[in-house]
Amino acid sequence: MALFPPLDASPEEVRDALRPLRNDFSVALHTAGNAFAVGAVIRVAHSFLVREIILIGNAPYYEKASMGMEKYETIVSVPDDDAFFAHVAGRPVWAIEKDHARRSLYDVAGFPRGVVLAFGSERGGLSAEFIARAADVIGIPMYGVNHSFPLAVATGMVMNEWARQHYSAR
């Protein structure tokens, strides 16, 4: 059910048209370390019309991987954890971290309003200090010998579960 903007619409006109359709959750990427993966996440996050995409640290993103969707998204860059937590003050932060999970994504019965879903790098995940500041820690079950999902896949899985829970009743 993709929307088709008029071909002559500016990016700002498209952003304005999408604003009332945005969903009440955000995605944060903590020092992702892979510019292509960050671009892919921007593309996937656009498909779920997230409130914003927050980049923690100074990792760049590859615009070609976002397939132009960065033009329509609110992308916020913050330098560190303190700036991130100040930016999202008052909103619940859920760390998505397999090795320190308090519960499985499959056990989430509801996402809180305004939740910020925070993902770390494929190599290092999220730091213990960041996890300690999170309201919850969710793990995505894995069944092979691979240690992590690609970042765009993991974010897509969690955003899809958010959407499944919010839109299945409609």
TrEMBL record:
Domain of life from the UniProt record: Bacteria
Keywords: Methyltransferase, Transferase
Short name of any one Pfam family annotated for the protein: SpoU_methylase
Segments forming domain tRNA/rRNA methyltransferase SpoU type: 27-159
Alphabetized Gene3D superfamilies for the sequence: 3.40.1280.10
GO biological process: methylation
Residues forming coiled coils: none
Gene Ontology terms, MF aspect: methyltransferase activity
Record's protein name: TrmH family RNA methyltransferase
Species the sequence originates in: Pendulispora albinea
Phylogenetic lineage: Bacteria, Pseudomonadati, Myxococcota, Myxococcia, Myxococcales
